[in-house]
Specification:
It catalyses: 5-amino-1-(5-phospho-beta-D-ribosyl)imidazole + S-adenosyl-L-methionine = 4-amino-2-methyl-5-(phosphooxymethyl)pyrimidine + CO + 5'-deoxyadenosine + formate + L-methionine + 3 H(+). Its cofactor is [4Fe-4S] cluster. The chain starts with 21 loop residues before the first strand and ends in a 19-residue tail after the last helix. Helix 2 packs across helix 3, helix 4 packs parallel to helix 5 and helix 6 packs across helix 7. It has 19 helices and 13 strands. Bound molecules: 1-(5-O-phosphono-beta-D-ribofuranosyl)-1H-imidazole and fe (ii) ion. The site of 1-(5-O-phosphono-beta-D-ribofuranosyl)-1H-imidazole (IRN) has 18 residues, from helix 8, strand 11 and strand 12.
């Protein structure tokens, strides 16, 4: 096992090198090089999967954090502005297929025209600031693979800048489609600069957080001018999408008074404090058109914030939440009329029976703009397991049409996530997103399930590990009880032991059927039944123990 590199940071402090069993490949699409992760199987086959990890998993890449990633998009064609707008939305509406759209079509395995028409209709967005040429374009929309976002960033207890870059590299290694830098505290500008110059995925921010730093944490001291200048500062650096809590209106704030958990959104609470202190309408709302002009110049995508999202099961789907959503719909129309791309942020904490209503209303009120939700947590009773409580809601809401899921880590509500928490959060959300892709019939989703199932049925253990979302942990769990190399080809694992492996019994049944020339479905069924009956008799004879004592693996092949 000398090839295990995926968890070892290199000298630069970054985790580089291929994921176990995979190599980085590029598909040549005209002058575009579209990355895929090729998983190599022991039977000579391979499977190419969507790859978010950028050059970091390319064994041949020469990574230098100080220099940043190659500015790939700089050499791509930039179409002429359409009526003054150089945005993917403007181009899509004018019938132009951009290089970004072409790249995305190849990545997703869909037609270019689907990409263009969904962007033109506002049902999908491509967050790609002109000033972030290092990024590999991706699309967020319900007709495409469900995406996940990982939040990184320090709070008052700060880590070093290199640590923040490593968090981004680490999150995208495991499959984060975008990352949001939610840093607060010192060095916010420099941290973001390093992340952007080294990020192969779109980067999002919440500019109100930095604006608040500039007024020493006093929300009432915020002004439109301070906020605007912060947005421009971040736009110049290349931030691809920004959360703007412009739907928190003065008159909605009283609607939260009787809630169990009030306003839980950071940005929402900052804006509510400002509105109440000045008794004026939010400057984000009153200056929204000016904001659109800035966003249009760089092609920044709005992520209209859910400042009034429910923070508990009790508050789900209440008046405050849906009043804000209606305003987000109004703002969506304003942004789109200026050729600015928009997605809509959603909850939060919602019990399962109230999830579908969220998607239905969002699509109706916001004219089909992509929905981007934070979970939602399907119950409040499991702190320390909120990656799971939220992945339940996330899978359901994604199946119902949500385009991107903001991950939740096991530390949610408890503390700042560490490296392991980030990985667990990302993998958990990949599961939710992929489960939804399968349910929605995304063209390529099932390929990987089928490949893994075949490997499992044929006892190709190494292939089973490598096809999984987290090969390292799968291998580690297997090796905990059967560490010897021959166990990697054994026709059982320690869960059922050699005698009671159902996969092996069915393989035996198939072999028996073949040898005896039994070919019809009925024959096979009868043979299966006989096989099962004989195994059941064997089970009874053996003393009806479900857990059999472990037997040491003695040699290669089938030891039983
Ligand atoms: C996603 C959906 N709803 C909220 N989010 C994310 O939560 C958003 O994208 C950003 O990362 C974070 C903003 O949190 P506050 O400021 O709304 O608490
Ligand atoms: Fe919460």
């Amino acid at each position: 096992m000398g090839t295990r590199v995926s968890t070892a940071p290199t000298n630069s402090g970054l985790t580089t090198g291929p994921i176990e069993g995979s190599s980085k490949q590029y598909l040549d699409v005209g002058h575009l090089r579209v990355p895929v992760r090729r998983i190599h199987l022991t039977n000579g086959e391979h499977l190419d999967v969507y790859d978010t990890s950028g050059p970091y998993t390319d064994a041949a890449a020469d990574i230098d954090v100080e220099r940043g990633l190659p500015r790939v998009r700089d050499s791509w064609a930039r179409p002429e502005p359409v009526a003054g707008a150089s945005t993917q939305l403007a181009w899509a509406r004018a019938g132009i297929v951009t290089d970004e759209m072409r790249f995305i079509a190849a990545r997703e395995g869909v037609d270019e025209e689907l990409v263009r028409s969904e962007v033109a209709a506002g049902r999908a967005v491509i967050p790609a600031n002109h000033r972030h040429p290092e990024s590999e374009p991706m699309i967020i929309g319900k007709r495409f693979a469900v995406k996940i976002n990982a939040n990184i960033g320090n709070s008052a207890v700060r880590s070093s800048i290199a640590d923040e870059v490593e968090k981004m590299v680490w999150a995208t290694r495991w499959g984060a489609d975008t990352i949001m830098d939610l840093s607060t505290g010192a060095d916010i500008h420099t941290t973001r600069e390093w992340i952007l110059r080294n990020s192969p995925v779109p980067v999002g921010t919440v500019p109100i957080y930095q604006a608040l730093e500039k007024v020493d944490g006093d929300p009432t001291a915020l002004t439109w001018e301070i906020y605007r200048d912060t947005v421009i500062e971040q736009a110049e650096q290349g931030v691809d999408y920004m959360t703007v809590h412009a739907g928190v209106l003065l008159r909605y704030i009283p609607l939260t008074a009787r809630r169990v958990t009030g306003i839980v959104s950071r940005g929402g609470s900052i804006m509510a404090a400002w509105c109440l202190a000045h008794h004026r309408e939010s400057f984000l709302y009153t200056h929204f058109e000016e904001l659109c002009e800035i966003f249009r110049r760089y092609d920044i995508t709005f992520s209209l914030g859910d400042g009034l999202r429910p923070g508990s099961i009790a508050d789900a789907n209440d008046e405050a939440q849906f009043a804000e959503l209606r305003t987000l719909g109004e703002l969506t129309r304003i942004a789109r009329s200026r050729d600015v791309q928009v997605m809509i942020e959603g909850p939060g904490h919602v019990p399962m029976h109230k999830i579908a209503e969220n998607v239905r209303l969002e699509e109706e009120l916001c004219d089909g703009a992509p929905f981007y939700t934070l979970g939602p947590l399907a119950t409040d009773i499991a702190p320390a397991y909120d990656h799971i409580t939220s992945a339940i809601g996330a899978a359901m809401i994604a199946q119902a049409g949500t385009a991107m899921l903001c991950y939740v880590t096991p530390k949610e509500h408890l503390g700042l996530p560490n490296r392991d928490d980030v990985k667990v959060g990302v993998i958990t959300y990949k599961i939710a997103a992929h489960a939804a892709d399968l349910a929605k019939g995304h063209p390529r989703a099932q390929e990987r399930d089928d490949a893994l199932s075949r490997a499992r049925f044929e006892f190709r253990w190494v292939d089973q590990f490598n096809l999984s979302l987290d090969p390292d942990t799968a291998r580690e769990y297997h090796d905990e009880t059967l560490p010897a190399e021959p166990a990697k080809t054994a026709h059982f694992c320690s869960m059922c032991g050699p005698k009671f492996c159902s996969m092996r019994i069915s393989a035996d049944v198939r072999a028996y059927a073949e040898e005896n020339g039994l070919a019809t479905a009925e024959d096979i069924e009868r043979t299966m039944a006989e096989g099962m009956a004989s195994k059941s008799a064997e089970f009874a004879r053996a003393g009806k123990r479900v857990y059999v004592p472990l037997e040491p693996v003695t040699g290669a092949g089938d030891p039983a």
